[in-house]
């Protein structure tokens, strides 16, 4: 375990890396910054660096020179992988020159925290960063920028991933078991995080008096119909189940069910509350 972390992001804003669903430079900087914040909060000695050179050779030299000015600690370079655009999970890996055990441990930690496929430790003796740094060093490939599944997991488990990196390197970590419950959003949509860090999937859930349906990936449905136990329900643009109105020629009742004919009810609001306080049936 190390008492000091020297961490930098790969490439630069003027010398871009991989770009697809997400941008490697943007996300590498985000990971570095969060690891730095976690280390600071834990009292761990930490230094971070983001290079700005536009020339690839100069970029690599500047990053290595920055790392080599430190006599102590572990040198860490953060990158994101790329192959080809796919919906499949691709995974995380950690490259090393001589630190095989450390690389394997960090890869395993990121895999478990992020839910990624563990591609493991990869020996890369030709990588400039690993070849020219003068202390123990690893190069982290957090996940694939062109994998829909990887990016989904990365967004949902970002803080846990960064915390896992710190713990694997120093043995220290923040308490991430207690999460702030509430709505979360990324480029794909909205999901609802529970206090234990999990989120509802393949189910209805009532939140603040409104019903929502969450798909198998945990994202809330919106702007679409859903068939449930023989009935049709409509989720609006705000993800809430509609309890009135006419959509696609179908009239929606107070229980959320769609009907072909217009619904007329003399029942006062108080008498129909029981229809919307339990899961749609």
Tell me about this structure.
- With 281 residues, this protein is α/β, with parallel strands linked by helices.
- It is 26% helix and 26% strand.
- It has helices at residues 24-42, 56-68, 100-114, 128-132, 148-156, 158-170, and strands at 4-9, 45-50, 74-81, 92-96, 118-123, 137-144, 182-185, 190-193, 203-207, 210-214, 224-228, 231-235, 246-247, 250-252, 258-259.
- It has a 6-stranded mixed β-sheet with strand order 2-1-3-6-4-5, sandwiched between helices. It has a 3-stranded antiparallel β-sheet with strand order 13-14-15, with no helix packed on it.
- Strand 1 (4-9), helix 1 (24-42) and strand 2 form a beta-alpha-beta unit.
What are the key terms here?
single chain, alpha/beta
Strand content: 25-35%
Question: Which series of helices and strands comes N to C?
Answer: EHEHEEHEHEHHEEEEEEEEE
Mean pLDDT: 90
Arrangement of strands in the largest sheet = 2-1-3-6-4-5
Assign a percent range to the helix content.
25-40%
Report the sheet with the most strands, covering strand number, pairing sense and barrel closure.
6 strands, mixed
Tell me the span between the first and last alpha carbons: 54 Å
Number of helices: 6
* Strand element count: 15
What are the low-pLDDT stretches, counting only 5+ consecutive residues below 50? 265-278
Cα gyration radius (Å) = 24 Å
Give the overall silhouette.
elongated
Structural class by helix and strand composition:
alpha/beta
């Amino acid at each position: 375990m190390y008492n000091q972390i020297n961490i930098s992001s790969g490439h630069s804003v003027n010398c871009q890396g991989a770009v697809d669903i997400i941008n490697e430079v943007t996300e590498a900087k985000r990971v570095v910054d969060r690891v730095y914040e976690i280390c600071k909060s834990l009292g761990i000695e930490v230094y971070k660096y983001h290079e700005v050179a536009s020339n690839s050779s100069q970029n690599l030299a500047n990053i290595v020179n920055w790392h080599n000015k430190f006599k102590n600690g572990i040198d860490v370079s953060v990158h994101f992988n790329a192959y080809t655009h796919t919906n499949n999970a691709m995974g995380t890996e950690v490259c090393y020159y001589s630190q095989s055990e450390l690389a394997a441990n960090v890869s395993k930690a990121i895999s478990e925290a992020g839910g990624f496929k563990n591609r493991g430790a990869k020996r890369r003796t030709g990588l400039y960063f690993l070849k020219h740094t003068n202390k123990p060093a690893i190069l982290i490939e957090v996940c694939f920028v062109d994998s829909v599944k990887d990016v989904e997991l990365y967004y949902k488990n970002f803080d846990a991933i960064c915390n896992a990196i710190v713990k694997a390197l120093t043995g220290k970590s923040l308490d991430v078991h207690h999460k702030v419950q509430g709505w979360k959003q990324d480029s794909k949509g909205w999901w609802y995080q529970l206090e234990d860090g999990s989120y509802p999937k393949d189910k209805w859930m009532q939140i603040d008096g409104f019903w929502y349906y969450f798909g198998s990936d945990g994202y809330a449905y919106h702007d679409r119909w859903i068939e449930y136990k023989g009935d049709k329900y409509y989720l609006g643009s705000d993800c809430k189940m509609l309890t009135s109105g006419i959509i696609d020629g179908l009239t929606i009742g107070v229980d959320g069910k769609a009907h072909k004919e217009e619904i007329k009810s003399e029942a006062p609001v108080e008498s129909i509350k029981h229809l919307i306080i339990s899961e749609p049936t």
